[in-house]
Design brief:
This protein is of the alpha+beta class. The chain contains one helix and nine strands, in the order αβββββββββ. The protein starts with a helix and ends in a 6-residue tail after the last strand.
């Protein structure tokens, strides 16, 4: 009888150990998922090491990007010249990803015949580049997007954005 009791006790211990380990794993997973920022951007970003130059891809309205820095959580508006076709406009808003520092995500919206074909978000030691082109399903750029963030820093934190570089194309979707 002792052998049977001992086996039964050991089996209970094993079951409880498995339950506790499973519970700990589930809790760690929940904390990890809850702590990571929710990306809402229309495209996945490309990681760019270091501080990239504010240059635009071929086909953009300009070879040099519009550089925008955070402004205490206020929206900022900029007029963008369209060669031989007037002026477009972009509104940019920096905000806080819940649980992180201020100015950790950015949103934009365009009007007046332009769209964004590339946005590079710099924060910490590196940048994320969001490309809105034919390969991403946006042959004429995109009028608006939100939830753009910089890469997670080496300390595992979402850094404050230092600046965003925007590139533009003429767009048939949001006329003058």
């Amino acid at each position: 009888m002792r052998v049977a009791t001992r086996a039964k006790t050991q089996s209970r211990r094993t079951r409880w150990a498995a339950r506790l380990a499973g519970g700990g794993l589930a809790a760690a997973l929940a904390i990890g998922v809850g702590a990571s920022p929710a990306l809402a951007a229309a495209v996945d970003p490309d990681f760019v090491e270091g501080n990239p130059a504010p240059s635009c891809p071929d086909g953009s309205l300009s070879s040099v990007a519009l550089r925008v820095t955070p402004s205490d959580g206020e929206s900022q508006g900029f007029d963008i010249p369209i060669p031989n076709d007037g002026t477009g406009h972009i509104d940019v808003t920096f905000s806080q990803v819940p649980g992180s520092d201020p100015d950790t995500q950015v949103a934009f919206s365009t009007s007046g015949g332009i769209a964004v074909n590339q946005a590079t978000v710099k924060g910490g030691p590196n940048a994320n580049r969001y490309i809105y082109d034919t390969n991403a399903g946006f042959p004429n750029g995109i009028q608006s997007d939100d939830g753009l963030i910089s890469p997670i820093n080496p300390g595992g934190q979402l850094p404050t954005i230092s600046h965003v570089d925007f590139c533009f194309v003429s767009s048939p979707y949001n006329g003058t």
